[in-house]
């Protein structure tokens, strides 16, 4: 019963949602320890906490074909089939990058081609790093935009065959999607404008004669070097005497400033900033913010 899809599940691409993953990999997932201990009786609410705990992405590894927790959660999403709003919230939130990758992979499996382009293309602007486990059990670094590009271009990702989708041109011709707008268009236009301005300035400067050549004259000006006078020495001595007299007054002012309440507050604030913070409390606060968006109960620290 634990390995069956829910009764009210809808067919995806004409088949059972779990059949989108090949049978050999499915059986390995069912036999894995992570599936039996952590994925048993998971619901759409509890899977949020498991997605927050992810620390890397990947498919299968080692010679015995062991599945990663990421792939186990993908199969669990296919089994329980959560609402579309929850999956979109996974993709749109920016605090937990591995949860975003999980939602993007699941939407690529069950979503239509128009939804895939609509919700995954904005993730090209996410350049955060992701840890990826290879087939030999080693880790490498991949960026979020590279991972999204793999989902949109490749036929197989993490040893899972992705359903085929229509090309973007078909949706643009039918009016379902507008033309793709890249964030780099503004930068490219600004660079082109700056290059045109520089070329115009250079052409304008070459038309004028050089003013430096006119101002130069063969006659050299003589600089008058005068020896230091006694008045300068006397002024420097008087300044030194004044500084010696004003030293005690300056010291008193500095002591008063150091004892002022404003400086004590600033010192306290600096100490509070330098003190180490508990990363677990920050993670709990971010998780509670995400759970509040989904309408779930907050976690207790």
Concise synopsis of the structure shown:
With 301 residues, the chain is mainly alpha-helical.
Describe this structure in words.
- With 301 residues, the chain is mainly α.
- Among the domains are: 17-182, no CATH class; 260-301, no CATH class.
- Helices cover 56% and strands 7% of the residues.
- It contains 14 helices and 7 strands.
- The chain has helices at 23-31, 33-37, 46-52, 69-80, 84-92, 97-110, 113-120, 144-153, 168-174, 184-207, 211-215, 230-258, 261-274, 279-294, and strands at residues 57-58, 60-61, 66-67, 129-133, 139-143, 156-157, 160-161.
- The strands form 3 sheets. Strands 1-4-5 form a 3-stranded mixed β-sheet. Strands 2-3 form a two-stranded antiparallel ribbon.
- The chain is extended.
- The two termini are 34 Å apart.
- Mean pLDDT is 79; it is low at 210-221.
- Its main location: nucleus.
- It comes from Medioppia subpectinata.
- InterPro entries: PRP38 (IPR005037).
- Residues 241-252, 261-283 have a biased composition (Basic and acidic residues).
- This is Pre-mRNA-splicing factor 38.
Protein traits:
301 residues; mainly alpha; three-stranded mixed beta sheet; 56% helix; extended
Along the chain, the helix and strand elements come as HHHEEEHHHHEEHEEHHHHHH
Helices and strands: which structural class?
Answer: mainly alpha
Largest β-sheet summary: 3 strands, mixed
Poorly predicted ranges (pLDDT <50, ≥5 residues)? Answer: 210-221
What's the arrangement of strands in the largest beta sheet?
1-4-5
Mean pLDDT: 79
């Amino acid at each position: 019963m634990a390995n069956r899809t829910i009764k009210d599940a809808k067919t995806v691409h004409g088949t059972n949602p779990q059949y989108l993953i090949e049978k050999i990999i499915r059986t390995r997932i069912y036999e894995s320890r992570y599936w039996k201990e952590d994925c048993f009786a998971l619901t759409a609410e509890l899977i949020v906490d498991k997605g927050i705990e992810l620390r890397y992405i990947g498919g299968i590894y080692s010679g015995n074909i062991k599945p990663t927790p990421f792939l186990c959660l993908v199969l669990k999403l296919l089994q329980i089939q959560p609402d579309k709003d929850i999956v979109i919230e996974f993709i749109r939130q920016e605090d937990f990058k591995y949860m975003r990758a999980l939602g993007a992979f699941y939407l690529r499996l069950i979503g239509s081609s128009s939804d895939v382009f609509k919700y995954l293309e904005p993730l090209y602007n996410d350049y955060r790093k992701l840890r990826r486990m290879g087939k030999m059990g080693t880790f490498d670094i991949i960026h979020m935009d590279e991972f999204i590009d793999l989902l949109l271009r490749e036929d197989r990702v993490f040893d899972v065959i992705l359903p085929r989708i229509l090309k973007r041109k078909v949706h643009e011709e039918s009016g379902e999607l507008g033309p793709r707008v890249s964030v780099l268009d503004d930068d490219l236009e600004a660079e082109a404008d700056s290059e045109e301005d520089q070329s115009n300035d250079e052409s304008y400067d070459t038309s004028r004669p050089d003013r430096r050549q006119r101002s130069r004259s063969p006659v050299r000006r003589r600089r008058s070097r005068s020896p230091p006078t006694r008045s300068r020495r006397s002024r420097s001595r008087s300044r030194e005497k004044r500084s010696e007299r004003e030293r005690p007054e300056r010291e008193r002012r500095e002591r008063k400033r150091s004892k002022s309440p404003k400086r004590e507050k600033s010192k306290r604030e600096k100490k509070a900033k330098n003190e180490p913070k508990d990363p677990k409390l920050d993670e709990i606060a971010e998780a509670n913010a995400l759970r509040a968006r989904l309408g779930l109960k907050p976690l207790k620290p």
